[in-house]
Amino acid sequence: MSDLSDLEAQILNGVKSTQDLTALEGLRVSVLGKKGSVTELLKTLGGLDPEARRTRGASINALKDRVTAALDQQRQQLEVAVLDARLAAERIDVSLPPRPNTEGKLHPLTQTMDELVAIFGAMNFTVATGPDIEDDWHNFTALNIPPEHPARDMHDTFYLRSAQPSNGAADSAPRKVLRTHTSPVQIRHMMAHKPPIRIIAPGRTFRSDHDATHSPNFHQVEGLVIGENIHMGHLKGCLIEFCKAFFEIDEVPLRFRPSFFPFTEPSAEVDIGCDRSSGDLVIGKGNDWLEILGCGMVHPKVMKNCGLDPERWQGFAFGMGIERITMLKYGLPDLRPFFDADLRWLRHYGFSFFETPSLERGLAP
Fold first, then answer.
1. What is the pLDDT of residues 50-105, one digit of tens each?
2. Does residue 156 share a domain with residue 31?
3. Is 137 a member of any domain?
4. Cα–Cα distances in Å, from 108 out to 315, 330, 339, 346?
5. How far apart are the C-alpha atoms of 187 and 179, rounded to whole Å?
6. Which of 15, 70, 180, 267 could make an S-S bridge to 155, C-beta 3.0–4.6 Å?
7. How many helices (H) and strands (E) does the chain have?
8. Do residues 274 and 242 lie in contact, with contact meaning Cβ atoms separated by under 8 Å?
9. What is the pLDDT of residue 364?
């Protein structure tokens, strides 16, 4: 058995001294391969008598197991060393921007919402938010839209399926909807805060509509002012100043057309002057008109639904689609790429993080 001991010592010394995975694999083949030194020993067992064959075979198999274990242990240590060396060589400073890729860009919708906050913030408006999933009362009834009102059909509402009570009783819980506008934020704010109130409510809204200018998930911003002796002149002045600041036009032509909304009385739709004669839409000049928003004085029934006395308090409200005004200002022809997650589109139309609008610096160039 001394020859096996000598061979084992020789092999184990070779395993320990091997510091390369390729060399270690070569050593394994030379020992355990088809013509390896240990394999050759097994071939000599055929010339021995049964008792000697059994004893020597067991010794050779034990040697083979010890050599295999030593090779596996050395391979694991070398793999860990290789990985550590690679991690040290390929270490990335995550505090630096990725290279050679360009820096990330703000989505045009994010840019527009930041601009809205900056403009109305300068007029002392604050931002109010509310849930995306609303109940029927806040989304419709409190806004003077009763169950039989045709405006509910106009909104193309996404209704959520109500959970059935386990006891078999009739479901008395308010029906849930994906909010069709951000007007419920106004209702919740009027019920939770005493006048005077001056808020804007930007956020996501949902309607069953989808084409080049409509999306089932879109964004709106609505404004609300409640106070004493508020009149239509305040509403017109507020919107004129907003359009001047947003479209960056000193003299912006606006037209207020009588309209109807259940939650305002009187109501108006606002058109902005534009020119389409060249094939491109130019805002602020020309003999054509383009609708951009709706507005009006808050309906007395809405005031009462929120616990306010319409004899004392008056107010105005307005609302507009954020996608629509973004498309108008930045010349975007199609709404659908807004939600395609196309990085090429975002790199082209996106905005730098360092040009975010604020009250101090104004709108980004």
1. 888 888 888 888 888 888 999 999 999 999 999 898 888 887 777 766 666 667 78
2. no
3. yes
4. 31, 9, 11, 8
5. 13
6. 180
7. 12, 11
8. no
9. 46
